[in-house]
Structures
1.
Amino acid sequence: MTQKQNHANTFPAATTGPAATPTLDEVAAAVAPTGAAVDRRPLAELTTLRIGGQPAAVVECTTAEQLAGVLEAVDAAGWRVLIVGGGSNLLIGDGPEVSELVVVHAADDPEAAISIDPETGVCSAFAGVEWDRFVAATVAAGLGGLECLSGIPGCVGATPVQNVGAYGAEVSQVLRRVRLYDRARRVAEWVAPESLDLAYRYSNLKFTDRAAVLEVEFQLDPAGLSLPLRFGELARRLGVARPAEGEQAGEIRRPAAEVREAVLELRAGKGMVLNAEDHDTWSAGSFFTNPVVAGEAARDAVVAAVRERVGESEAEAMPLFSVGTPENPEFKFSAAWLIERAGFHKGWQVPGRERAGLSTKHTLALTNRGGASSEDLVALATAVRDGVFEAFGVELVPEPVWIGAELPPVNRATD
C-alpha cells in the first residue's frame, strides 16, 4: 500500500550546545538586557498533557521584541533551546535531553498586543497570545474566518506552524503573513504564506529550529460571516446540512458568533476544551493525523480490510474523502473511526499502565489520567498505532512534537 506521510514524528527541537548545562544564574545574566523573567519549573507545567521533565531554565517572554532578543542571547551562548508556546502539541520526556534545555516560553499576557481592524478585517497578535482569546476577540469585533477554530488549545504562534485546522477550516485560508525571527541570520522579518509550504497539518516551520514565530497576521471577513460550512457534524449542529433555496452545498455561511458557539459545544462534548478538572482534556488534542493514502489501489485495500473486519455496512458508512487531484488521486480516512473499529474504545488503557488512556469522550485523544509519564503515553500510542496497522494496514502518524521521547517503528512483518 502506498500511504502518504506528510512528515516524520521526530523533531530536531534543540540546537547543538556545549557539554555543560547552563546554570539558572548564567541564563538570567545572558537574557537580562531583555527584561525577560527566568525561573526553573518542570515542562509538565507548560504542556497540556502535563508531562515533561525539568529543563535547565525557563525564560518567559511576553512581547515579540523580547522573544527575538532572548533567542538572540541564548543562541549566542550556544545552549540547547526549546521554544514553547501553549504546550498543546508536545510530548516531553524526563531524561537528560530535557534537563539540558533552556526553554524559551512565549507566554500570554493580558496586555499582550492584539490588533484588530473591524473595517478591513486585518488583525494580528503576538505569538504567545492564547489562541482562543484571540479568536474570541475577532468574533466579538464582528469578523468572520476563525470561528471554526474556536476552543483549540495553544497559542497564536503555533497556528501557522501546524496549519491548524478543525471542522473543515484551516489557518491557511485566512493567513495574511507571519513575522519570523530567523535564528541563523538573527533578523526578524514578515513572510508571505506562500513561503511556508502550507499543507494538511504542516508547514516548513515544523520539525525545524531555523526560525521562531513572533507575530501572526490574518485577513478576516468584515461582514462577520463564517468560512463555508463543509464539515458534516458542524453543519448538522447548525441545521444547514441541507442547503436552503438559493444556497449551494459546501458554500453555506453563517454569522461567526453563531458558528463559534456551536464549535465550542462540539469540542466540549469531546473533551477538547481545556479544563483542569477534566482529565479528558489533559491531552495533546488529536494525537494522530487523519491518514492519507495515494492512489485508488491503496484506497481499495483499506476499504477491503475494513469490510473484512467489520462488515459491508460499516465499510459503506466509513468516512472517506477525496483530497487529491485527477492526476494524483489521494484519499483521507478518519483516524478516530479506524481506531474505534480496530477495537480501541473510549477510555481504553494499556493493561498495567492505567495512568494513561484514550479519552472517555473521543478516541483520537490520548490522555494523562493523573501522574502519567512519557513512557505511559508512548506505550499507549504504540498500542493504538500498531493495532490500527494490524487491522487495516494503515500507519497512523502522531501529530505532536516529541522531545526526549520516541515512538518505536511499526512492525511491518505483515505489510
2.
Amino acid sequence: VVFDCNPKPVKSMSEILFGVTLREKDKPVQDASVEIYLTMPGMFMGDNRILLMHKEKGRYEGKGVIARCPSGKRIWKADVIIVHPSKKTTHASYVFEVKN
C-alpha cells in the first residue's frame, strides 16, 4: 500500500487529491474497495472519510478537505481501509503534517 496526497505542502481548508496504489505480488490490485479515514491524534475533528475510486493499474484516487484545527495542531493521520473482493480487510496508517 502506497499513500500519497497532492498538492504539497498539504494545506488545511483546500481541496486535496488523495491517492493509494495497491499491489500484491507485483501485480496491481484493481478490484478493491478503498477508503481513507482522516483523524487528528488526540483531538476529535469530526468524521472525515474519503472514498477512493480505481483509476488505472491499481491506483485509487479521491478528493477531500482537511479542516483547520482551532488549537493550531497540524499532525494528521490517514487510515487506509482496503476491502478485497474476497472480503479480506487490510489497514494501513500514515501520519503527516498539514500547513494551516
3.
Amino acid sequence: DNGNVVLDTSSIQLNMIWVANSGQGTISKINTATGKEVGRFSLCNDPSRTAVDSLGNAWVACRGDGKVIKLALAEDDCVDKNNNGTIETSSDLNGNGVIDGGEMLLEGQDECVLFTVQPDGSGGSGCNLDANSEGCARALGVDKDDNAWVGFWNSKRLWRVSGETGNALQVVQIPANPYGLAIDQDGIIWVSGRGGSKLVRVDPSTNDIQELAPDQDCFSPYGMTIDENGAIWIANCCCEHVAFRYQPSTNQWNKVAVEARPRGIAADGNGYVYV
C-alpha cells in the first residue's frame, strides 16, 4: 500500500504435459520429469485439442459436443465449489504412476475443472467431416492475455473465450474449416484450414482475413506450429507427404519430405521442427 514492491514467494511446477484421451473422454496430466500420471479428468465427448496458458493451466476443445474447458494446473487455483474446505480432484493415491479405479472423479465433480462452456453450441450427433451439426471444436490456441481462441469445424467460426470467466468475447467467420491454430508473436492467428485446403491468417484487432496456399497440386493442412523466427509450419497430411514452411515476411513457401501422412508438428527453441 505504501508503494513498495512485494515479491511473491510461491512457485508452480510447469513441467506438466496435458494429453487428450479421445476415446475415454478424459485428459491426463503427466509429470514430464518422472513420466507419471498425476491427474486425469473426465470432461466431454471426444476431447481432442489441448493448449496451455502462461501459468500452465490447460484448455481443452472437444470434437463430439463442442465443449471448451479450462483446467487449473495448481491445486491452489482450483475452486472449492461445494464449500466443504477441501479440493476434490483426481490424484494418484496408491503411488503407481497411473490414475486408475476410484482415483478419478466423475464428470462435473472435479473442482480443478474451472469451467465448461459451449460458445458455438452443441455438437449434436457428432462431428464427422461431413456432419451438418455445429459445435465441433477442432482448433485451439491461447493468446498473450490468456484468453483462448477456439476453431469450430462445421460453422467455420473462431471464438475468443475469456480465461477468467469462460464468456465469449469475440467471433470471427473464416473461409475454411479449421483443424489447427497457432498465434504468433504479433498476435496474428494462423489457422490450418483442412476443409478448404487453405492457410488462413486472421488479424483479431481488425478481423482482416487472408487466404494463403502454396503453388501446389495437393495442399492438405493438418497440424501446425510457429517456430522461434515466426515461420509457419504445416504438416501436409493425406496426399503429398511433406512439411510446409511459410515465411510471412517474404511470402515464400518451402517444403521438406517426411514420412507418410504427417499430422502432428511442433517447433522447439533450438531451431528444430518435429513432425
4.
Amino acid sequence: MATTTKALARTAAATSSATLYTMPNTSTVTVVSNIVLANAATSASTATIAIDGVTIVPAVSIPANSVVGFDMKQVIPANATPKIITGFASTSAVSIHISGVEIS
C-alpha cells in the first residue's frame, strides 16, 4: 500500500457549502490529520467542516486575525459515501487548510 501525505484542501472559504476534497477513487482510504482555519477579517467569523455529510467542525468561532487548529485522525473509508469533505465560513476572509494522507 502506498501512503501519500497531502494538502487535501487549501483554499479561501466559500460562504455556502462547497466541496473541499473528493477522494480520488473507490480503493483509496483517506485519513484527515489536521484542519487549520485562518481568519484574516477584522471581526470574528465562523466556519463549518463536514466529512461525508457529518459535521466535525460545527460553526466554530474564529476570532479576528486569528487561527484555530484541530488535530485529529478521521478516516474516510474506501467504501464511504459520498467520499467528500465540505465546508464554508461566514466570510471569504477565512482560509481553510486540511492535511492528511491517502492510502491506496
